[in-house]
Write a structure and sequence with these properties.
Order of helices and strands: HHH
Number of helices: 3
Distance between the termini: 69 Å
Number of domains: 1
Radius of gyration: 27 Å
Helix content: over 70%
Strand content: under 5%
Shape: rod-shaped
Structural class: mainly alpha
Oligomer: single chain
Mean pLDDT: 84
Length: 93
């Protein structure tokens, strides 16, 4: 009886820290995956929000009202001037 209790305590002493360590590692991995998913969702939302304006900018003739409106909308989205060509290539690819 006492030997089985000692054996149980010994096993628990070995496996409890291992189990807790593995659980912590799994939680960190899940947090990192969730963070990556969140960032991906944010980038996808940005692309979605800018797609119409970028398409208008790319398809418009230079120095037209459509081009200026698209540039203004893109500038407002970023709260400042940006490189339209690079932004729109990223958005539409």
């Amino acid at each position: 009886m006492i030997s089985s209790i000692v054996r149980s305590v010994a096993i628990a002493t070995i496996f409890v820290p291992l189990t807790l360590g593995l659980a912590g590692g799994v939680n960190r991995l899940l947090d990192k995956a969730e963070d990556t998913t969140s960032k991906s969702a944010q980038l996808a939302q940005m692309k979605s929000d800018l797609a119409k304006d970028c398409l208008s900018w790319m398809m418009s003739k230079k120095d037209t009202k459509v081009e200026r409106q698209a540039e203004t909308a893109i500038d407002e989205f970023f709260d400042g001037s940006v490189a339209y060509e690079e932004v729109c290539e990223w958005v539409l690819n």
